[in-house]
Specification:
Length: 186
């Protein structure tokens, strides 16, 4: 059986998903503020399917998109973690780092805190050579997390293949961090 990597930061636990996370996760995915840079909010069923995917990939690989729990309150905060995108992206194959937090937890540095440790797992435990992150060009908050992690912005934006040609979110910005850049930043 695969050993699941779980991580503790100052304020958070990054852990395998529990069934009790599914309900608060569905609230997050139904919030228009959270889903502003995605094609739509998610229904309860769509949200549960996504949580089940995160849970099963974590069980299979021992790493992935971790559920975030705030230590002080024990509340489910959202997710942060590493994922192998299935879409055919201009820089595939790749491992991406991604985050989605309840708006109740924005503005506290929690996404950056979680992602800092997720990068550490990626580079130290999984020995990845590079981790990328990408989002719609105008997702300022997410791009700011990438910059805070000292990821490096690609000069070239790209068109996300899963969105229709004229879709306003189709143009994405990508940031990258190599293992050597990460080591130099430590
Ligand atoms: C992207 C997202 C995770 C960013 O959340 P965030 O709260 O802005 O990011 P952080 O957790 O890193 O917090 C940084 C903010 O907390 C502030 N902060 C407060 N206390 C802090 C502390 N102790 N340490 C660090 N920062 C702190 C920072 O100053 C910064 O505020 P600013 O945005 O006003 O400059 C969030 O907006 C989100 O979930 N969006 C929806 C999902 C999404 O779009 N995901 C990306 C698509 S791939």
């Amino acid at each position: 059986m695969v050993q699941i990597i779980e991580i503790e930061t100052n304020r958070l636990i990054l852990r395998q998903w529990k069934d009790s996370d599914f309900k608060p996760f569905s609230y997050i995915n139904s919030d228009k503020r959270v889903m502003e840079f995605f094609p739509s909010t998610l229904s309860r069923t769509e949200s549960d399917t996504l949580a089940e995917l995160c849970q099963s990939l974590m069980a299979e690989r021992g790493w992935g998109i971790w559920a975030l729990e705030e230590k002080a309150s024990k509340k489910f905060v959202g997710f942060t973690g590493l994922h192998i995108p299935t879409d055919d992206l201009p820089f595939s194959p790749c491992v991406e780092i991604a985050w989605r937090l309840s708006a109740d937890f924005w503005g506290q540095g929690l996404a950056t805190e979680a992602a800092t440790e997720a990068l550490r797992v990626g580079f130290e435990n999984l020995h990845l050579k590079e981790i990328v992150s990408f989002t719609a060009r105008n997702n300022v908050k997410s791009l700011a997390v990438m910059a805070r992690l000292k990821m490096v912005k690609d000069h070239q934006d790209f068109e996300h293949p899963s969105l229709p040609l004229e879709h306003p979110l189709r143009v994405h910005t990508v940031f990258r961090l190599s293992q050597s850049e990460w080591k130099a930043n430590q």
